[in-house]
Amino acid sequence: MNNEAAIAINKESVVTNSIYGKKVRTSDSILLMLIYLAASVSILLLIGIMGYVFVRGIPQVNVEFLTSVPSTLKGTFGILGNIVNTLYIVVITLLIATPLGIGAAIYLNEYAKPGKVVRLIEFTTETLSGIPSIIFGLFGMVFFGNTIGLGYSILTGALTLTLMVLPLITRTTQEALKTVPDSYRSGALGIGATKWYMIRTILLPSAMPGIITGVILAIGRMVGESAALLFTAGSGFILPKNFFGKIFESGGTLTIQLYLCMQKAQYDEAFGIAVVLLVIVLAINGLAKYLAFHFNVEK
Description:
single chain, mainly alpha, 12 helices, globular
């Protein structure tokens, strides 16, 4: 009987002292309400901005708008040339920045010994991430455009964007590699695999969700960039006649055309371009979520 009483007392004490039995304080309830309020305000702001843009811009989006270029003689206004220029810049930037960023992350995480050099490189990449984009544009115009002689061209814009997104790809890849357990490394090296073979067949596939997410976020930044490209890529909207020759010509992206439309008080066309940009950004974010989920399921 004494044992049963002691057990009952212990159970009552556990329930009383557990998080479920504790009394809810008024301050906790207020903080919880503030958290939900902040989340609700963020969601409402997003819905409000997107709703206003779509209401103003969707009537302007049609087949002609998406498949033609501005022409005074024909009386048309289209963004096909700007879409093509955006694709050019994104593809060229990814071809340069992705291997450099992933390679730098592999070196920092797997080969470099922790010390002043690694800390200096990491500090440099973090500093580059915080530099305003217009400064990158000024540097790209002076160095790539004037010094190297590329002028206003898609290649100049792509090289400038490479400097901008390289820290993002490097840091996200580095963090993704850090999430791979050390037991994977020890096991692979223990059975006689070389370090590069271990990185190529074990670490990179395991870190792939984080790497892909970083790359897609970098694409989102490229698509939405305007200040740096205004000084480097120019504002041309002519469709390419030569696939490779186009990279040495001026090419305005969707964001540049949006800026020019606002300058000319062409507000309806500007909202139409904004709708296209929002759809692209939403598609990029959705693709990032899908790929991250897909690779996590495969793992």
